Structure to design on (411 residues):
């Protein structure tokens, strides 16, 4: 019996996924300590929530413009490469900010998000071309697994550094961690150029449509956008989560015990690594499930992940906290796999980057509003913040179901 030869499209998906692996190793490694780092630099919870949300607003809202530009020019690789360069150089540059330089750190965060805005519509469109040959749920799930392997290894790398680098202040140790992240950043760019050389025209993976079908904002797509907007509003940014956990164990806020054998300042990167591991597994599982069950996979993942805020912010013990972070990871896995897969099914090839731009623009605007307002609520009423977070995510489900029903009627 002969071994089944891997298809060219799957080879591209895997290679592009490895690029994402090292990219995520860079900026997700940074994300594991960035909230605590910004608090150390002097930023308040409100400021962290605002800047994190503003970063997402820039990183997502500008994707609409860059998606339109990508479709108009057809320069998928150019947009992807420029975005990756900006995205990656901003992370190790965090090592250069001063001890009270939270404003400079915020500026670098915004630059990094702009890089993501430039690259994401083009990158997702490129992926969708190959994914159309292999199953969109499975393909985006595989890429997310590779993404999250990097997102797992990045925090682990920083944990190991913190474990052995005991000399110097906390600020100096954090700065050194950001500097080390320049290594996977450089590897990412090398692999990216190699992938471009090997697959210069990835748009050829998906056959051209027999007739030109212009993209229109149909009711089912609008309802889907409404659903993902509600989900984004309620899905609390990890920077606020890690700041909360960091505060709990440094005695700055009431809640969990101030000392713990499992959760302390030295193990913060491990919490994020664990969340990314759950993200990877759930992305692959729900990606395969989406190819078989459609929108029901999205509904199931939302129901499972929605209560994460209660378990994280109302935690009375370590087990409750860890369970909440695992639920957050499931939500992230769904966001990065089946939410994107659904767009591929709704938007024609000729307008795919624009479709992703609209999708991600809406997602970013509401993530910004949610991160900001939920950050403000955190400072004033924690119970209200948790309730709003859960309710917003669950309200997305009717939008998904009606959108799917309308799409089925027209198919």
């Amino acid at each position: 019996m002969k071994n089944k030869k891997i298809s060219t499209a799957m080879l591209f998906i895997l290679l592009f996924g490895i690029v994402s692996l090292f990219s995520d190793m860079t900026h997700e490694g940074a994300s594991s300590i960035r909230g605590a780092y910004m608090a150390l630099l002097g930023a308040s919870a409100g400021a962290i929530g605002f800047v994190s949300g503003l970063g997402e607003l820039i990183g997502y809202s500008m994707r609409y413009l860059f998606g339109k530009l990508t479709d108009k020019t057809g320069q998928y690789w150019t947009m992807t490469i420029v975005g990756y360069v900006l995205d990656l150089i901003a992370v190790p540059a965090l090592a250069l900010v001063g001890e009270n330089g939270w404003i400079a750190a915020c500026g670098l965060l915004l630059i990094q998000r702009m890089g993501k805005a430039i690259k994401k519509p083009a990158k997702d469109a490129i992926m969708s071309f190959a994914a159309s040959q292999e199953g969109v749920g499975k393909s985006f799930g595989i890429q997310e697994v590779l993404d999250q392997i990097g997102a797992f290894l990045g925090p682990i790398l920083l944990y190991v550094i913190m474990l052995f680098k005991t000399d110097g202040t906390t600020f100096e140790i954090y700065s050194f961690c950001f500097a080390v992240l320049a290594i996977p950043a450089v590897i990412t760019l090398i692999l990216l150029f190699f992938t471009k050389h090997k697959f210069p025209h990835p748009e050829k993976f998906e056959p051209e449509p027999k007739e030109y079908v212009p993209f229109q904002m149909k009711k089912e797509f609008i309802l889907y956008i409404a659903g993902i907007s509600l989900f984004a509003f309620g899905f609390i940014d990890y920077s606020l989560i890690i700041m909360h956990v960091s505060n709990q164990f440094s005695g700055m806020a009431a809640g969990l015990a101030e000392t713990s054998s499992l959760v302390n300042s030295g193990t913060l990167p491990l919490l994020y690594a664990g969340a990314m591991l759950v993200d990877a597994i759930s992305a692959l599982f729900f990606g395969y499930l989406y190819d078989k069950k459609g929108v029901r996979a999205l509904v199931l993942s939302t129901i499972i992940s929605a209560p994460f805020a209660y378990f994280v912010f109302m935690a009375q013990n370590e087990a409750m906290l860890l369970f909440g972070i695992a639920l957050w990871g499931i939500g992230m896995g769904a966001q990065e796999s089946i939410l994107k897969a659904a767009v591929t099914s709704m938007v024609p090839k000729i307008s795919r980057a624009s479709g992703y731009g609209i999708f991600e623009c809406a997602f970013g605007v509401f993530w910004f509003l949610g991160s900001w307002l939920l950050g403000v609520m955190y400072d004033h009423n924690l119970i209200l913040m948790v309730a709003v977070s859960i309710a917003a995510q669950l309200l997305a489900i009717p939008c998904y179901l009606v959108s799917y029903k309308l799409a089925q009627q027209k198919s």
Q: What stands out?
A: DSSP finds 16 helices and no strands in the chain. Residues 8-203+215-410 form a domain with the Growth Hormone; Chain: A; fold (CATH 1.20.1250.20). Residues 165 and 310 are 35 Å apart (CA to CA). The first helix runs from residue 8 to 40.
